[in-house]
């Protein structure tokens, strides 16, 4: 094992198997250090298979020569996603498997590192005894923590901490979205250390504890083992995986700098340099006594200042405190008569990104809706498995309402019947495959949020159907 990289994984104290995998090796004639942490998504069958497929696909892709590093990292993840998706489509018993991962390529010679990331595994950079979290957690709780709405401790103990928005294996089309894979690059200076880890470590240990272990005088191998041991002693609630990479070149004397991360679609930021400047000599200013012109000028300036403050107060009141309420997005109708079938479906939608109706309901039995189901999440895939959803006799509104926050929705092999509106959507996220609308006045209705702006154009509902007709839309 080389001295400048080390990887270790442990099943923890509460899991029977280990769904994590890692990569820690050199590639392309030892030019780069390839490091990756892969976490099979907890709660899904086949997480261990998904992480293994991703592991092999990434190594196979990046062992071949490439020119542009970031594009190659993204292509490696896309290749892994395709293999997972095809495997789960072929074998029904593992049809819900997925994984999350963080992948880095360290160029020690050029003092740089590059990364690609999907999910809630993490990448940290240690420089000058300061630990910086480089990647973002692709989850709602992670967003709250990164934006400062939740403290680190509150986020670590949040009940929805591990509900992710992105993963490999959800769907092939999602990887076509330009911002689905988080990428970036940064200087990797002599003495820096990269830490890649699964949430089995970051959910158990605070940044302070992780930093104290990384800045110790131990070897890289001993630091990795110490991190795993500390996570187990803190509870070991999940599989724990750690990969460390260090720039072990001789540390040079350089000015103190903050780590700079250049992310996709962001302009590079200049490194902040701390330089002590010599303070110029101060001039001695003699006081002026009895200057009546200065007193008069001071009074006039004071008067102008009062006028300015009054005007500013008026504009604040007029534009911020007294403005009419802004138009809001369409909210879900109140769910007053939810039956048992609807509650099962709602619970499945809230807890998973991909659902199969034949695993929730009895086959060949119609599903009765008494109210609309409102969906407000990043992505969702509904496999209808030829199920039939029918509107209750006392309910004729939309079967599903998808908010403007939805970025990718796929519905396949499903029939909606007797609804005034089959589906309401507020953007272009909706994809349909083999969906039938029977006796629906409108198949798909697009809501437009104008925010008091003038809207012009021609609106066409190509999926509209009369009560006597049904439309089969293909993706």
Q: Can you count the helices?
A: 9
- The span between the termini is 49 Å
Helix content: 10-25%
Order of helices and strands: EEEHHEEEEHHEEHHHEEHHEEEEEEEEEE
Number of strands: 21
Mean pLDDT: 80
- Most strands sheet: 6 strands, antiparallel
Output the strand order for the largest sheet. 2-3-4-5-8-11
- Rg calculated over all Cα atoms: 29 Å
- The domain tally reads 2
CATH topology description of the largest domain: Phosphatase 2c, domain 1
In terms of quaternary structure, the protein is single chain
Sheet-strand content, in percent, reads 25-35%
Mass-distribution shape: globular
Q: Which architecture of the largest domain would the CATH scheme give at its second level?
A: 4-Layer Sandwich
Q: Could you say which structural class the secondary elements and strand pairing correspond to?
A: alpha/beta
Low-confidence stretches: 265-296, 320-336, 458-475
Task: Report on the architecture of this protein.
It is a single chain. This protein has 475 residues and is of the alpha/beta class. It folds into two domains: 5-263, Phosphatase 2c, domain 1, CATH 3.60.40; 340-451 and 461-473, no CATH class. It is built from nine helices and 21 strands. The protein has helices at 47-62, 69-90, 140-146, 152-156, 199-202, 207-214, 220-233, 292-321, 340-351; strands at residues 5-10, 20-27, 32-40, 99-107, 112-118, 122-127, 130-133, 182-187, 193-197, 240-246, 262-263, 354-356, 367-369, 373-375, 379-391, 400-402, 408-417, 421-425, 430-438, 442-446, 470-473. The strands form four sheets. The chain has a six-stranded antiparallel sheet with strand order 2-3-4-5-8-11, with helices on one face. Strands 12, 13, 15, 17, 19 and 21 form a six-stranded mixed sheet that branches. Helix 1 packs antiparallel against helix 2 (69-90). It starts with a strand and ends with a strand.
